[in-house]
Amino acid sequence: MTSIFNPNNLEKHSTELSYPITVVIPVYNEESCIVNVLEELDNVLSKQFDVYEIITVDDKSTDNTTKLLQSQEKINNRLKVIYQNENRGQSHCLMQGIKNASYERIVMMDGDGQYNPTDIILLYQLLSKDIVLISGKRNNRKDNFLYRKASKIGNRVISYLLGTQIEDLGCGLKIGYKNHLERLPYFKHIHRYFQIIYFNSGLKYKEVTINHRPRIGGVSKYSLLKIFNIIPRLLWLKITRTKLTEE
Q1: pTM of this prediction?
Q2: What is the sign of the dihedral through the CA atoms of 193, 4, 75 and 106?
Q3: What CATH topology corresponds to 19-240?
Q4: What is the pLDDT of residues 227-236, one digit of tens each?
Q5: From CA 170, how far away is CA 135, in angstroms rounded?
Q6: Where are the beta strands (DSSP E) in the chain?
Q7: Which end of the chain is more exposed for a tag (fewer CB within 10 A), N or C?
């Protein structure tokens, strides 16, 4: 599919892109793609921002991901790597990256190469003082059929249970403000429920269509079981009306 943006056509940033950003990427066993992901991301960001940083959180990978990140860190002064001393999961990695972010605008994305970093510009431009979380909505998803079908059903259940329209709860490409993100109450798999917690907190979010690419290597961390485990957590979030913590 043709990208919404072509990095070769990007001009130097306008005043609309003048605020610096942090991009947080949790990774676990992504040796086959992490270098390409970082190089592509850096190429896009360098054309748009004078000031930015990339924070990669290595969840104690067991392949060559850690070594590759160490090499990349030596040659890219925009890159910071946080090395976990034990495997804690994607949500913990995201929260660590958010905590260590230098800038108020924070992009979150996966490290498997399925997201096109040029879509970050689209999300960035939509973030505002009123709409404080922008989440991707994957177009023409490249996951397997059963996962796509189960996810579609799950998103419909979510909308019914919570009374708010969410078309793609599981998209890993998002942008928000650090002031809000660091107030998320931590629990395992919280990265799947950002929109719901913002909704409970009376904050506005928006979903925007983005591209989705085939995985070029590694193994997906998702499963059908994880999708169906979402329902009990949703019910808990609805009953407790879980919100951001107070400032």
Answers
A1: 0.84
A2: negative
A3: Spore Coat Polysaccharide Biosynthesis Protein SpsA; Chain A (3.90.550)
A4: 566 777 777 8
A5: 10
A6: 21-27, 52-58, 79-83, 105-108, 131-139, 174-177, 204-211
A7: C
